[in-house]
Amino acid sequence: MSFRLFIYYCAICGGWAAFLAWGIAQGIGFRGISNLYLRAMLIAGILGMLVAAAIGAVDALQNAVGSQRYVRTGICLAIGLFGGMLGGFLGEFLHSTLHFPVFIGWILTGICIGASIGIYDLLRSWREGGDTHIPLKKTLNGVYGGLLGGFLGGLPFGLLMGSTAIPRTDLAISLVVLGLCIGLLIGLAQVILREAWLKVAQGFRPGRELLLYKDETTIGRGESCDLGLFGDNTIERLHARILLQKQRYLLADAGTPSGTYLNEERISEPTPLKSGDKIRVGNSVIEFGEREKRK
Fold first, then answer.
1. Which of 90, 188, 216, 287 has its CA 20 to 30 A from that of 157?
2. Distance CA 24, CA 30 (A)
């Protein structure tokens, strides 16, 4: 999907997940819970779990293949649940004892949701001894977006949390706004603060975009490739790799008969990439983009 669609789906899925959280909380009778801490933890935990899982699923569809998608979504779900419960408790504690605004808890929940989408990549890179710079950047981008989304989306919710008789429709709207804001800002942060990316200019599903955050990104006709280019028999199942070495991206051919071309020149060894370069594999053309590095 394009980055515009990625942002759109993050926002929409975040909003619908928050609405589902409201429905579940209503179904289990959270209003009958007299303990304010337990009630806040229940609402925030359910919301954090579902919103993190929804945004994590969108990220997994954009940047992962196969069973890896389910693992990523599961990790996001677990972190969102923990972050939501912690945020709910902390928000209620600060509100009850120090009279802080309740949205402080939603900021922490948003931070945990945002961080969750990069944790899988960070742990895998660390475990494999790879470069953790890009996965860490992805995690921090999510934190920034979640923090701002939790703040903006938590403002209307905080106005209602002080009441023990919260109107159902108002609570539902406030939760949906919160989920929308968290999803929207996380998606925006990932795209606006991205380091490097690919865009399919010609070939299977042109306009698709892919964030680069791994030590090795694969391109080919195989379903296990990070960037799948299907329906073109001139492309091998594994045709090319983009390698991240010392915070520098290199293009490498996977030993294919037809070769891999960089700006219409066939490469014979790993070759450095710069923003604006065009990669051709078979009949497909892929554009490489990279944020300008500070000197």
1. 188
2. 9
What one-character-per-residue DSSP string does 135-147 give? HHHHHHHHHHHHH
- For residue 266, which of 277, 258, 274, 275 has the smallest C-alpha distance? 258
In a 10 Å sphere around its CB, with 0-12 CB exposed, 13-18 middle and 19+ buried, how is residue 267 labelled?
A: middle
In tens, the pLDDT along 3-58 reads 899 999 999 999 999 999 988 888 877 666 778 788 888 888 999 999 999 999 99
Q: Classify residue 42 by burial, with Cβ atoms within 10 Å: 0-12, 13-18, 19+.
A: buried
Relative to beta strand 216-220, strand 227-228 is parallel
pLDDT single digits (tens) 253-286: 988 998 999 999 999 899 999 999 999 998 899 9
Residue 59: alpha-carbon gap to chain centroid: 4
Residue 81, token pair as written in the block: 């649940």
The CA-atom distances, in angstroms, between 115 and each of 18, 75, 271, 288 are: 18, 11, 33, 26
Rounded mean pLDDT, 177-194? 93
Residue pair 115/79 in contact by the 8 Å Cβ criterion: yes
Question: Does 168 have pLDDT greater than 60?
Answer: no
**Quick one: tokens of 270?**
């790993």
Which has the closest alpha carbon to 215: 186, 189, 252? 252
Calpha distance 14→202 (Å, rounded): 32
